[in-house]
């Protein structure tokens, strides 16, 4: 978090794993870092994006739910998802800016047999607006089902982009994640099949920026980096600048990011010293 602050990020959103005590420690000045908007643990089905048990790991899924620093928790079925969401709210996720991440797809890395074209969660027609959902890179049918909920996601097809524009959804491309994985694949010990998946997305991702811009979809800044790969955080600026006008790249991490967090007027803008706060 201190390194993020030193790179100039004064407010960040974590969509899986950060906890209220971490945000409180920053607010109290016990640690140095940016203001933290957190989503609690991501919700995942068994074998899903946040189920990190290997093929021969038969420990209970609860071992992940209660492990400090775990990105997500496993819950299957409507009742279990509802209970998990309530439990994350109980733990104070996101304070008044409540977010919930639906980790919908089968995990892509390091598994060599998983597929990203897998739909697990479906939004309820009786959904409440207490939480604002966000979705990771998942299959097209799943992504389109989330747009009416106000969910935000990345890899999309043209009809979904149009629907996002119509519904006012915000895209949060995270292209640097694939560049980082490509650079560090050997050090991370990723198998060739995973590297091939990464490169397939990496080489196609820049085209999505151009299409999103033409569709008029608002794009906020994001990275989706984990652990030591956070050192590549600022490289997202360079990648976007290859396709987008510089002013749009700047807006993505200021006013557009504030809109994404529903914090317009509180963060993401520059004012003179004489302006009212």
From TrEMBL:
It comes from the Bacteria. SUPFAM superfamilies: Metallo-dependent hydrolases (SSF51556). Residues 110-132 are annotated as: Disordered. Residues 110-123 have a biased composition (Low complexity). This is Amidohydrolase family protein.
């Amino acid at each position: 978090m201190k390194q993020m602050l030193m790179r100039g990020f004064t407010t960040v959103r974590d969509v899986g794993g950060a906890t209220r005590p971490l945000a409180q420690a920053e607010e109290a000045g016990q640690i140095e870092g940016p203001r933290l908007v957190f989503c609690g643990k991501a919700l995942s089905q068994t074998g899903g994006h946040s189920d990190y048990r290997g093929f021969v790991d038969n420990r209970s899924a609860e071992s992940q739910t209660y492990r400090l620093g775990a990105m997500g928790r496993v819950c299957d079925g409507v009742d279990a998802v509802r209970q998990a969401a309530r439990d994350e709210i109980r733990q104070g996720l996101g304070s008044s800016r409540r977010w919930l991440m639906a980790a919908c797809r089968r995990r892509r890395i390091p598994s060599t047999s998983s597929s990203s074209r897998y739909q697990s969660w479906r939004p309820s027609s009786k959904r409440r607006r207490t939480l604002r959902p966000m979705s990771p890179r998942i299959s097209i049918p799943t992504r389109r089902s989330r747009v009416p909920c106000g969910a935000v996601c990345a890899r999309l097809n043209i009809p979904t982009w149009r629907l996002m524009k119509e519904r006012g959804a915000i895209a949060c491309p995270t292209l640097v994640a694939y560049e980082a994985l490509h650079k560090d694949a050997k050090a991370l010990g990723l198998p060739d099949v995973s590297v091939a998946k990464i490169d397939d997305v990496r080489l196609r991702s820049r085209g999505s920026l151009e299409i999103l811009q033409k569709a008029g979809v608002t794009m906020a800044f994001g990275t989706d980096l984990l652990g030591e790969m956070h050192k590549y955080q600022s490289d997202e600026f360079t990648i976007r600048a290859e396709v987008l006008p510089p002013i749009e790249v700047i807006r993505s991490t200021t006013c557009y990011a504030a809109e994404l967090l529903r914090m317009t007027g509180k963060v993401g803008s520059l004012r003179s010293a004489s302006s009212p706060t």
